[in-house]
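dumping this here before i forget
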Amino acid sequence: MECRKEKNLKNCPCTYEGCERKGLCCECIRYHRERNELPACYFSEEAERTYDRSVDNFIKEQKY
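structure:
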């Protein structure tokens, strides 16, 4: 499958500057799944900036 990194980068909400998976969605998802986390695109802009990608943080955010 052809990667669409440049297209993905336009919509990627991740603000972590050192992320080597930015724009590589399949790698990003795999990385976070291995850590029981969710990628930045699941979070609001405010929650994403905390860099807390935990499922608990995602659930907590959904309650508001």
